[in-house]
Structures are given as C-alpha cells and as structure tokens.
Amino acid sequence: LGDSHGIRVMEAVAVLLFVLLIPAAVVNAQSECVREEVVKQAQVFQSAQQVLNATLAASVFTVDGSTVIPAGTTPHVGRQAIAAAFQKYFDGLEWQHEKIEGEIVVANNWLAFSKTITAKHKGTGKITSSYTVNWYKFDCSFKPPQLAFFSAVFNT
Fold first, then answer.
1. Among 10, 61, 75, 150, fewest CB within 10 Å belongs to which?
2. Is residue 122 within 8 Å of 94, Cβ to Cβ?
3. In terms of pLDDT, which residue wins out, 131 or 16?
4. What is the CA radius of gyration of the chain?
5. Looking at residue 43, what is its pLDDT?
C-alpha cells in the first residue's frame, strides 16, 4: 500500500481538493442534502463494486452523471458509459474487497472517504492492494439522491 508518509500525503491532497470543491458545491447545490441519504447511496455504490455489478454501480448516477477514475483521466459521462467502464474493469477481476478507512465526510452535496481496495485479477491470479480517496457530488433534487460526479485518487 505504500509507506505511511505516502498515504498521509494522499490524504492531505484529497482533503485539500475536497475543501477547494466545497465552495462550488454551495453555489451549485440543487437542493439540501440529508447526510444519511447520501451516505446510503454511497454505500449502494460501494456494494455494487464489491459484487462487481457495473449496472448497479451506474444506476445510482444521474442520467448525465460522470466519473473520472482515476482523477485526471478522461471522464465517462452518462449511465451507459459509466456501466461500460466499470464492466471493463470488473471483467479483469475474480473478486474485489473494499474497506472504508476512517470517517465518511459529508459537506453540502459532497461526500468523501478513504478506502483500501484488494482485488484478485483473472488470468494472472495476482492480488493487488491500493489505498484510495473517493469523492462524490450528489444531486439531492432526486429522492433518493443520485450521483452527479465521482472521482478517486490511488496509492498503489
């Protein structure tokens, strides 16, 4: 997973990004988000990744939602593109386990947390682990809230 210094640097960068994004969230918030509702939707998304279900993962997004995984790569826009991107990734895995590390932070319509991902890859049988920080932007005008944006940074 890398050394503890690398993980601390990643956490600091993620928190900085999260803090920089909050003012935009305040200005662009569609409606008031309820912490429990966005946490529940994030958990549905996490569960979909655990069971390698791309369709379920994409279903929690708005019709025009987007993902940028990892941060800095080309976005996938719309449920179909999101499902296809996750399916391509899932097709290379035998299994994946994700464990949320620490606190789930919710601010306005943004949610963030860190997690450890352990996965076994098809073909090679190689098991990899990575530490990642995820952040989500929700559209809370929908009930339940839907993901408008998702991204992550990784330390592998």
1. 75
2. yes
3. 131
4. 15
5. 95
Closest residue by Cα to residue 85 from 63, 99, 95, 70: 70
Backbone angles phi, psi at 124, to 5 degrees: -85, -25
The closest of 114, 112, 115, 124 to 149, measured between CA atoms, is: 112
Q: What is the pLDDT of residues 24-71, one digit of tens each?
A: 444 444 578 999 999 999 999 999 999 999 999 999 999 999 999 888
Paired residues of 149 in beta bridges: 66, 137
How far apart, in whole angstroms, are the C-alpha atoms of residue 136 and residue 150? 5
Name the 3-class secondary structure at 47. Answer: helix
Helix (H) or strand (E) holding 68: strand 61-68
Provide the sign of the torsion angle of the four alpha carbons 104, 143, 43, 58, taken in this order. negative
The per-residue pLDDT for range 72-88, each reduced to its tens digit, is: 889 999 999 999 999 99
Cβ neighbours for 136, distance < 8 A, ≥ 6 positions apart: 38, 42, 45, 110, 111, 112, 147, 149, 150
13: CB partners within 8 A, 6+ apart: 133, 153
Tokens read off for 93: 């895995």
